[in-house]
Amino acid sequence: MSELRDFRLPDLGEGLTESEIVAWRVAVGDTVELNQIIAEVETAKALVELPSPFAGVIGALYAEPGQVVQVGAPLVGFEAEESAEVPAQDAEARSQAPDAAAPVQREAVLVGYGPKIDGGSRPRRKARSAGWLERPDTAHDSRSHRPAPPLRKLASDLGVDLDAVTGSGTGGLITRDDVRRHATAPPATAARETRTPIQGVRKLTAQAMVASAFTAPHATEFLTIDVTPSMELRERLKTSSAFRGERLTMLTVVAKAVCLAAARTPVVNSRWDEKADEIVQFGYINLGIAAATPRGLMVPNVKDAQGLDLLSLARALTALVERAREGKSTPAELGGGTISITNIGVFGIDAGTPILNPGEAAILAMGAVRRAPWEYHDAVALRHVMTLSLSFDHRLVDGSEASRFLADVGTILSDPGMLLTMV
Amino acid sequence: MLRPSASSDIRNDIRSTELLVQLLNPDGDRVPDPEFDHWVADVTGEQLRSLYEDMLVVRRIDTEATALQRQGELGLWPPLLGQEAAQIGSARALRADDFVFSSYRENAVAYCRGVQMGQLLAVWRGTALSGWNPFDVGMATPAVIIGAQTLHATGYALGCLQDGVDSVAVAYFGDGATSEGDVSEAMVFAASFQAPVVFFCQNNQWAISEPVALQAHRSIADRAPGFGIPSLRVDGNDVLAVMAATRIALDRARSGGGPTFIEAVTYRMGPHTTSDDPTRYRDPAELERWAAKDPISRLRAYLEHEGLLTEEFEASVKAKTDDVARELRAACLALDPPHALSVFDNVYTSAHSVLERQKSQYAAYLAMFEEVAE
Description:
Radius of gyration of chain B: 22 Å
Number of helices of chain B: 14
Domain Dehydrogenase E1 component (chain B): 54-322
GO molecular function (chain B): magnesium ion binding; oxidoreductase activity, acting on the aldehyde or oxo group of donors, disulfide as acceptor
CATH superfamily of the largest domain in chain A: Chloramphenicol acetyltransferase-like domain
Number of helices of chain A: 10
Low-confidence stretches of chain B: 1-17
Distance between the termini of chain B: 57 Å
Oligomer: heterodimer
Order of helices and strands of chain A: EEEEEEEEHHHHEHHEEEEEHHEEEEHH
Organism (chain B): Lacisediminihabitans profunda
CATH topology of the largest domain in chain B: Rossmann fold
Mean pLDDT of chain B: 92
Organism (chain A): Lacisediminihabitans profunda
InterPro entries (chain B): Alpha-ketoacid_DH_E1_comp, DH_E1, PdhA/BkdA, THDP-binding
CATH architecture of the largest domain in chain B: 3-Layer(aba) Sandwich
CATH class of the largest domain in chain B: Alpha Beta
């Protein structure tokens, strides 16, 4: 594949430092024409449409809708067609001009509907310290000489952090040799910590976790069970004609068990509506599956999972998780969940305290399936053992209800035949 | 250049300014007007087509420049969307030796005067402090200070009187500018000296986010008679009415009749600039009402009715607008930042020792970066 040509977010107003991506109008792989609208972007001043600067194929979208992007940061990667009017090197040179890390400080606008100045987010012009012009008083600035722009450029070109350089010149003045020496020194002084802005999926995840953890009183129960019968059932089904070539995983079996058990204890599939002062009992199950994707945690859900037979559920789950991993989950898939499962077993973990997906009353974590010594027919045998961890919102689910639900799931998994007594 | 076919007494009348002169209604029907018709009677079918092409070209310039701004290639752009007829109709009535003093939104006027694409964009790309030599095209570079250019125009017109030439100065400004003292001062001087100047006000209904009704309790054209300046109020989205009014004003100025004030009633269909979001202060229904009065669609309907809108002609206009868009983009991307030392150029006409010293110091400073690059 050809190398991508990046389009960096321009300053869409006068003196803006960031913009929020409202929506993409294109997807990776789309062919776009010059000036075709590729995105809607909201600045502090206006909601604007972004026209494509190149004709070509979209190779990458570097931001999610809802994400705030710094001016100068890459936005779209194009597998652009070469065009005589836009020589590639020019485009590159231009795109490198803005420095995302240090947005250029600009004065307020001359004409137009000016930006909202809200404290904090907008970088402020710092009062210039007198240190580099006059002798500093005392504890003003540890560095008596402010490095001159050519030196700062050299440091930036060589990737040297001037704060980490000890000056050998008069009064601690950093010289070019100091900078060059620092650049060639072994990376013992490499950054011991890195700082990443909290944004995008990370920020949304954090907000959801905080909202959930500090509004719903969580209680967690654990149950370790022998899932050998489920494993054997799964093996038998896989060889049956109905399931041939299908992906039937332990997750599917657990998902089915959750749906069946929730029918017997509906309160685990409900929601505490603080605003309305009501408990919302769902008559359907939108089953969320926590998925680790390259962009972070996503919890897409299968709609009306209660109505799906095992085969349909298996297919729905496979498709759901694949889309999530490819970053193609639709907003509909990511919203409206009623109860969730998280599979920590895939990481080799046995048990934990899952945090509720906001607005839901229960979440079940399935641990790793291990061969372990287990009491079997009055003797110790090596069996397939798994631990289930159930967190529930104690405002609306009582311990007895949660226990019954968890025990039901356990019973179905450890002895699928017992279902005959339940439904 | 188009010329009037005859003169009339109308040029010396002060017409009621509540009346809106209109020769083409929004449906593209030709509305007969006994007083104004003969001022555009000489306009041929070919010239009508040419006006239509002009309007489509400048609308394309606007679209392309707006896209370039969104792509980070221009710092700012002030669209004239909706004001094509007001600008083309007036600018195409001018002679080469007339002189235009405009605000920053008169890019269609600049196009008519022969300003090159790169020159049009240099200021907005930030690679030059002004785009062109005013004397090459008979148009000063745009005034960003609101209304200041009306004074420049009046001064230039006084110069024309001194020189004894029959050139006319034309000041373009907006409804908002009429609230500035400069515009009143310019009108006082123009009337006092009977200067050959045309005050061409495009009332586009909005001074950034302030509606015109806030600044003008009566029509803006009504103000001029108070200064002793005859005024005309025309449908600014009607290219023929604008052209007729401009020709009347030019004719009066050339024949020693002094200044004229024209209020072209139009509408800024886009934002004030690319930094502005009109949806924050403007009713979308208002935009819809004005879209129905679009200057281009009414001329198109007229051409169609007159049998002038052939497929061949439309294809040639399309090719022309595409060419202009390509030319504009290429010219924009070819504008490189000026060398840092050029800041010292053209400060004085001759060498200046203090400036030379500063220049050499600055050159030495810049050389420190060159060393770094080694």
